[in-house]
Design brief:
- By secondary structure, this protein is mainly alpha-helical.
- It is built from nine helices and seven strands.
């Protein structure tokens, strides 16, 4: 799971717009900024800062981190996320977040939305990894689950699941529902995840 637990786009979009303005780059629309969510930084930086060099991107990244602490209070868990995670763990599931973000950011968001105690494993993007599929592979190697599935809301989540031979639950309430057409199961709300997971792995 990743962005399927929380609404971060309000503060994430605001932060990027602020920093783009500060650095005299075109301030992009919310939709343009949201379209980069889920990408590794090496892919989204050129889109957010067209024509920028590596040093400029590092400066941008540091400024974004500074502002995240200011605006993190705007992050919200989707309604029912705590109950859903509690149900999964009560049924014996191990819960994990596999994200293209840093462990610092993942931990900060989970704490802000009060779900940190309900997540058993965190897998950030490894600097040596080419993308989420490799991060997911490392998570699976570390945890060694008997069965597993992926829950997500972007094409990057779906591709990671496919490359690791995992069933995939697509969240239609997430960032980009149109990308969920090929999901094995689709859910319109957080509360539908446990039943979909049970059906995919144990029916």
């Amino acid at each position: 799971m990743d962005g399927t637990l929380h609404r971060t786009d309000a503060f994430a979009v605001k932060i990027h717009q602020i920093v783009q303005g500060e650095m005299k780059y075109p301030v992009q629309t919310p939709d343009e900024i949201r379209s980069t969510f889920g990408m590794p930084s090496k892919e989204y930086m050129p889109l957010l800062l067209p024509g920028s060099d590596e040093e400029t991107q590092k400066i941008y990244g540091r400024r974004v981190i500074e502002l995240e602490n200011e605006y993190l209070h705007l992050a919200e868990a989707y309604d029912g996320s705590a109950e859903m995670l509690g149900q999964l763990r009560g049924d014996g599931w191990v819960t994990a977040v596999c994200s293209n973000s840093s462990v610092r950011y993942i931990s900060a968001v989970l704490k802000a939305i009060r779900l940190d105690a309900l997540i058993d494993e965190i897998q950030p993007l490894d600097p040596d990894s080419r993308g989420k599929d490799e991060s997911l592979a490392r998570l699976l190697e570390r945890v060694q689950p008997r069965k597993a599935l992926m829950v997500g809301d972007t094409i990057f989540d779906l591709e990671a699941a496919r490359k690791n031979d995992l069933p995939f639950i697509g969240c239609l309430y997430g960032f980009r529902p149109a990308e969920m057409a090929a999901a094995d199961r689709k859910v319109a709300a957080v509360s539908e995840i446990p039943a979909a997971a049970q059906e995919l792995l144990f029916s």
